[in-house]
Amino acid sequence: MFLHDPPRAGGESMSITGTMPLDAQGVHHGFFKLPYSRDDSAWGSVMIPVTVIANGDGPTALLTGANHGDEYEGPVALQELAVTLRAEEITGRVIILPMMNLPAFAEGSRCSPIDGANMNRSFPGRADGTVTQKICHYIAAELVPLADIVLDFHSGGRTLDFLPFAAAHILDDKAQEAACIAAMQAFNAPYSVRMLEIDAAGMFDTEVENQGKTFVTTELGGAGTATARSVGIARKGIRNLLIHAGILAGDVQKEPTIQLDMPDDRCFVFSQHAGLIDYLVDLGDMVKAGQAIARIWPADRTGVPAITYHALRDGILTARHVPGLVKIGDFVALVAEVISETPASK
Ligand code: ZN
After folding, report:
1. Which residues surround ligand 1, an ion (CB under 5 A)?
2. Per-residue pLDDT tens for 298-342?
3. CA of 97 to the centre of ligand 1 (A)
4. Please, what's the b/e burial string for 96-114 (b: 16 or more CB within 10 A of its CB; e: otherwise)?
5. Domains recognised in the chain with CATH numbers
């Protein structure tokens, strides 16, 4: 009987409700409220912060951070945007979700502490699913359809570190792919990647692309924190993307960016051993196929030689494991192919 259940809106669609309108002109700060009944709050809710800024008729940008809760460039840059962007500066609408996966963000963890789910493997979600599935469903069914362009911030979290890059995926629809690549170039991170996913199923990226939208993602750093440099890249990228989309006036601020490609799975090196990792190259170093890139020492005894891991292709060390210990099956290295350097004048 309803006495024991939290109040909820009727209908299949949504247990999540917004505390503010999505279509009103001006600046509105509020929450997406998801009923979450639990021991310490019987009629409690997960409150996901959101800011909507709208002015006149124009495109809509959806900007999201903390899809994984331990990645911080998106939350920092989007919190700043939510208090600095004025309605009269824009034409159209900007929907800002700095902490889309609020439960994971509050815990400082990649996955949700409520249901253990990885949000970026849980799309398109379920209206009647777990907390993570419900958030995914709401975003996929209610927010993505409003958007013309979507920017989802990632970085390496606590267990990866990346060269700072913006990325677009190779898509079947070549017009859509070209729009995504143009938006990635407008974001203008120091590196720009045509990205191959290890497993695209359930990703926010895939859902947004399947809805025909222009999508840009990033990997701006990692190791469980953000830096002045990585947040600066995020801040400039947001502004450039809003200008590119026609929402913000001004000129896209272009600096040289190095184009990278991930043509096949020889880009990835994974560990078949547990132990103490000893990198022989650092992020940004050029490597050759067959070159030793890391050794793994035993973590539990002396007198045993290290196991050496080698690059499987020529390229640039684009991502690595953190911190110092690895387990069997852990990611060790991403070696991306360097395509070209785009001059600043482009
Ligand atoms: Zn991530």
Report:
1. 68, 71, 154
2. 999 999 999 999 999 999 999 999 999 999 999 999 999 999 866
3. 15
4. bbbbbbbbbbeeebbbbee
5. 9-261 (3.40.630.10), 265-338 (2.40.50.100)
